Amino acid sequence: MKTYLPKVDELNPNWLVIDAQDQILGKVATRVASLLRGKHKPNFTPHLKTGDHVIVINAEKVAVTGNKMTDKMYYRYSGYRGGLKVTPLKVLLAKHPERVIEFAVKGMLPKTILGRHTLRNLHVYVGPDHPHTAQKPATVAVDSRTSK
Fold first, then answer.
1. Closest Cα to residue 103, out of 94, 92, 117?
2. Domain contains 129
3. pTM, whole model, 2 decimals?
């Protein structure tokens, strides 16, 4: 018996919408990362881009537990001495709420070219509106594995 490998023509990505309003950041990120990789599909192959396009709406209303709002920091380093920039989650959520979800999902994807290409299928928006209505996306719940 041979192992089945899907052809590139057989990979038909779907469009899915996840509403992040009042959802825990980590739970949203793990669900989105799983959908982007395609782990929910029977033809999942680790070295192929078998995942779907995922649209996350209401990014500014994501919830975190504990003291993460003040204690969690995002670091950027320019490469020069004294070039370390530290941004707390509260500030990043106020200025660029879509980046919070993007950084969380990026950390859960493979650190390879495949992971970087997969991240292109993530679309995060502030507010309940998105410009992808022509793709007819299906709504997916964060806490369950079934779509609505």
1. 92
2. yes
3. 0.91
In a domain, 145, yes or no: no
First to last CA, the chain: 36
Question: Does residue 49 lie within any of the structural domains?
Answer: yes
Per residue of the chain (148 residues), give pLDDT as tens: 888 888 888 888 999 999 999 999 999 999 999 999 999 999 899 999 999 999 999 999 999 999 999 999 999 999 999 999 999 999 999 999 999 999 999 999 999 999 999 999 999 999 999 999 999 999 999 875 544 4
* CB atoms near residue 20 (< 10 Å): 26
Domain membership of residue 43 as a residue range = 14-139
Cα distance between residue 125 and residue 20, in whole Å: 10
Number of domains in the chain: 1
